[in-house]
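Today's session is about reading a structure prediction critically. Students often jump straight to the picture, but the first step is always the sequence itself: look for stretches that repeat, for charged clusters, for runs of hydrophobic residues. Only then move on to the predicted structure, which in these notes is written as discrete structure tokens rather than atom positions. Here is the chain we will use throughout the hour.
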Amino acid sequence: MKTTLIPDREKLGKLAQLLKPHFWVYLCALLTLLLAAGAALIYPQLMRIAVDEAFVENSQEHLNHIALLAVLVFILHSAFIWIRHFTMSWLGERVVADLRQKVFNKILRFSLSWFHEHRTGEIVGRLASDTTMVQSVIGSQLSMALRSIVQILACFVILLSQNAKLTLFVLVVVPPLTLATFFFGRQIRIMGRKIQERLAETSARVEESIAGIETVQAFTQEEREYNLYHETVEKTFDDAVTLARWRASFMSVISLSGYLTIALILWYGGQLVLEGALSKGDLVAFILYSMMIASALFTVANVWGAIQRALGAIDRILEILNTNSEISTPAHPQALNPKNPAITFKHTSFHYPNRPEKPVLQNISLHIEHGETVAFVGHSGAGKTTLVKLLMRFYDPSNGAIELGGLDIRQLDLEKLRQSFALVSQEPILFSGSILNNIRYAKPSATSEQVKSAAERAAADHFIQKLPHGYATEVGERGMQLSGGQKQRVAIARALLANPQFLVLDEATSNLDSENETLVQEHLSELMMGRTTLVIAHRLSTIKAADRIVVLEEGQIVEEGDHLTLMQAKSTYAKLVEMQIIQDATKAPLH
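Below is the predicted structure for this chain, in token form.
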């Protein structure tokens, strides 16, 4: 792999692009930075004048003038520093806020297959630690580096004008130190990226353990989870120690070189003073400028390492920002025909990208008229849920096509396509917040009365009213404060509020008791009237009234018809029903 000491121009360019929307603020920060650096260059000259004129001539008047001028310079310098620090800090905070929003907005629009390859903790890590590192660079370290570079260049110009021979001592040291800065900086960047990846891995480990805490404790695997976390943390620590060793060596080399240079200047400059070729004030000023160069080099070296680490973080952020979702709205989307939104699967096949050898659906051809209720049944893994996921474009078919109103769904606006569906799954997801907001999630503009009406039709209003805070009751993370049946009724209310063109019920009443199931089924029947409904069924007793039942086996349609026809045929569907009757009688679950 080709290695370079200078950082990737693309990444530095991307860093500059983040500042572009705030150009005038950055320009203000840059101007005050130059003014502050210029003010700092006056101090050695004041010392030179004090030594050569006030002290040598023993003049109180000169000393008073110099002290007054120094105070004025100090005040101006402090004012410029305040403005520069504030504007750069504002820029850092603004840029990281913009960056987090861009990354999160991008993540929300990725296809489901992307999430299969990236763990939640890793994604959270990129949003948190990586963007924070960029903020640190822009907010403080970038201005420090720019100030130091300006200071180094200006000091060199002044030193050359004062004494070219003495300046050679500085020039002999600076180029090797610059190369060392680039070399060490690259190593620090590589290790910094490695540490960021370790931290993301650690976050992912914690996320998984906490999300599955019931399973962890149920199988008494607390010690195992701790050991896995311990191993990851220790690896991160080892990498951090290695990084600290490199940084310590870096700083030590820079510091030693700088101070040795000052010692040489003092020795040689002292000889020039003794020979009368240089005044005492000039030597003092020369040493102060040399110390400013040494200090600035030290700052640049330190900041350079931080910038290198930030470029490692930018690498990871760019991976997200430069990734295009496999599922997106076409450049010129077609409009869905609301009068004939029939669904047609045309020789549709699908396999997951990482499992091409194992097809989930094979050559599915199916036509569903508008307003029809179609139930999909079959053993677990037969492809029932995948059909619906393809229809809502969570994935695209590997082969074949799916049409809605005669148009390939890949030609439709993705957002409008999904807005025409409402999904109630067997394991509904609720978000932390109130019950009111969870129901309103389907339609943020809905009034409280509309939310209550939807809850009543979902047989949820009765239990909600009994809660201490009613609709304002917090459900907790993933709805953990509610029972399975309560979560499902809230999810049904959410779907009812959406009033969709297409309704998808993935065993929507499986967590309800018999009384509430009957009540909810009545309201669902009302909702299903006049709209296309797809029912994914495991409990076959709930689909007898479906217009059509489609039976799937190993990703293929093996039979279809209404309940009575399929039972009379005594084929696959009839066997599934008989099997479930026996299992229900023995209170055994159907797998």
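Discussion point for the tutorial: The CA atoms of residues 196 and 288 lie 40 Å apart.
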